[in-house]
Amino acid sequence: MKPGGALRRVAWHVGALLLLAVVLYPIVWVAAATFKPSGDIVGSLRLLPTEPTTANYERVFGGVFGIGLGRFFWNSAVLAVLSVVGTVVSSAPTAYAFARLRFRGRSTLFAVMIATLLLPFHVLVVPQYVVFQNLDLIDTYVPLLAGRFLATEAFFVFLVVQFIRQLPRELDESAKLDGANHWGVFWHVVLPLCRPALITTAIFTFIWSWNDFFGPLIYLSTPEKYPLPLALQLFIDEAAGSDFGALMAMSVLALVPVVLFFLFFQRFLVEGVSTSGLKG
């Protein structure tokens, strides 16, 4: 190997390691802060704790305001799982209709759906809140889940539409020759081949729902119904002082399910259509 080539390889690896250190530093800092006393977290330049303690985790597992940690995990799990189910169940048939069916106004409706991606969530908060308030649904999970089951997640509908459009139409025609109607084509042909797109939808929906703070902040007012992101603020008290140690410990515990969920399903993200039965 030429000396210049070896030097470039060393420089590339050093640069990659430095970039990795920058990316991982916040995670290492939060993980190390969970073992520090609350007074040493803010204002201290030390990365690792000088006197490690597990008191932060003990306070977290002891609950806050009389509410156990398991309750917050359960609330987040309910919202995340139902969000995944609602988004996948509603996005798949909607995307099939846009990609395969021909009906009057299809292009216009599809354009309107894509245009909704340009609207910030904050613009829709007030009218949505008024609607749910008139329906007496504030402080329930309905405002956080209703849109998931009504195919309002335009990004995921668009994602599945683009995936279906790449599937050969000969598969649909073959199924119709065997007597299948549109529902049969969707259920037996298109839906199994859309597994990579649907799993991608499920992964991102789970992560976004698990980490959602603004939605629950707007619609929920009872601490017993708080998911984990909203429960974290219970450790922040401007009057009596904030428990940053417990806050960091709960943040790390809240991160674990997301990491495990992603690690379990990440292999499906790289699955191509060829692995779904299109070869030959």
SSE layout:
Layout: H1 3-33, H2 38-41, H3 55-61, H4 69-100, H5 106-115, H6 121-134, H7 142-145, H8 154-165, H9 169-177, H10 182-193, H11 195-210, H12 214-219, H13 228-231, H14 244-269
Helix pairs in contact: 3-14, 4-8, 4-11, 9-10, 11-14
CATH architecture descriptor name of the largest domain: Orthogonal Bundle
- Profile the largest sheet: none
Determine the mean pLDDT: 87
N-to-C series of helices and strands? HHHHHHHHHHHHHH
Counting DSSP E segments of at least 2 residues, the number of strands comes to 0
Taken as a percent bin, the fraction of beta residues is: under 5%
Find the structural class using helix and strand composition: mainly alpha
CATH class of the largest domain: Mainly Alpha
Summarize the structure.
It is globular, with a radius of gyration of 24 Å. It has 14 helices and no strands.
Question: Which key phrases capture this entry?
Answer:
280 residues, mainly alpha, MetI-like fold, 2 domains, 14 helices, globular
What does this structure look like?
With 280 residues, this protein is an all-alpha fold. The protein has two domains: 3-60, no CATH class; 66-276, MetI-like fold, CATH 1.10.3720. It is 67% helix and 0% strand. It has 14 helices and no strands. The protein has helices spanning 3-33, 38-41, 55-61, 69-100, 106-115, 121-134, 142-145, 154-165, 169-177, 182-193, 195-210, 214-219, 228-231, 244-269. Helix 4 crosses helix 8, helix 9 (169-177) crosses helix 10 and helix 11 (195-210) runs antiparallel to helix 14. The longest helix is centred in the N-terminal third of the chain and has 32 residues, at 69-100. Residues 272-280 have low confidence and may be disordered.
